[in-house]
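To: structure subgroup
Subject: Chain for Friday's discussion

All,

I'm putting the inputs and outputs inline so they're searchable in the archive.
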Amino acid sequence: MVGIRQILTNGIYTRAAVGITHNFHVKPFEGARLDPASLSITGIDPYHPLRPALPERDALQRVFREIRHALRAYNCRRAILVGHNAAFDLGFLNAAVTRAEVKRNPFHPFSCFDTATLAGAALGQTVLAKAVTVAGLEWDARNAHSASYDAERTADVFCLICNRFRDSYREAEERARALGWLNGPPQEPSNEDPHMESPIEAAPNEATGPGTAGGTGGAGG
């Protein structure tokens, strides 16, 4: 999970705290179907004895804890998943939440921002590597298909496109305010899962730092 935040003073979007990526190895759940072709691309050995994998529920709670902290910090009601072909990622996330019986998912259940669509419209490219390249950002093919690397590049593309449309956003925001749609922040009763707020010992490969109100990518490979 990579955080995305908006700097309120100038409206510019940026990836939160460069280097702060929450990335966990996850144990395969019972009955999981692991595609050998996919594993050959990612280079993941799910059963390697030195792989510090967490149970699925534990990994989800760690990621969700960071997101919930950011929701409170930025006075948001729900997080929105940002991903490349985001509906695919959101479907996997919702299935994992159900399977792990996590009581509250901070992400909106069906809304998401898809950078494949945004990049196609703004950059003329829907493949992540090509979109990153034509945007003038650096792409390292050696790290491609790593969950953390792809999530970071997806976040960078999202921020770049949003910043290019900043003037359009500001105009729409002014019209929304004139219509009375921005009178105050939305409020929602709190029904949080107390287990998601309890301190959890950091995993060996866990990055530390603040989460943000938007997230990209998954809980790890």
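Points worth raising on Friday:
The first helix runs from residue 36 to 42.
Strands lie at 2-7, 12-15, 79-83, 107-114, 214-216.

D.
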